[in-house]
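FIELD: query
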Amino acid sequence: MLDKLHNQAIDTIATTPTCILSTTGPAGLQASPVPCVVRDGPERKVFLLVPTTSDHLFNLEQQAKVVLATERWQLHGLAKIIQPGLYHYMVKVTPVRMQIEADGNSRHRETIDF
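FIELD: result
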């Protein structure tokens, strides 16, 4: 049952090309739209492309906790900078908890713990 819920959560994220990344740390509270991608494989993880000039990177060096959000869902997770690039850094987010808002198929907000 948990695998089914985890896959549902990751599938929901995979349908969204952009989310709001929120971080906190030495650069203060930051919230910015960033591209997000789910990579298939044995461990389906969420990856973000964060601009090299973003204060999010400074925050992530000190605090791994992040929140990703859209109008449909919110994901609490732990982020790790994994690959520097010329214009963007790739950041891997390991999900901790996700809330999916109610829609036409569901009357209740769902919370999924990973």
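FIELD: remark
Strands lie at 18-23, 30-39, 45-51, 65-69, 73-84, 88-100, 110-113.
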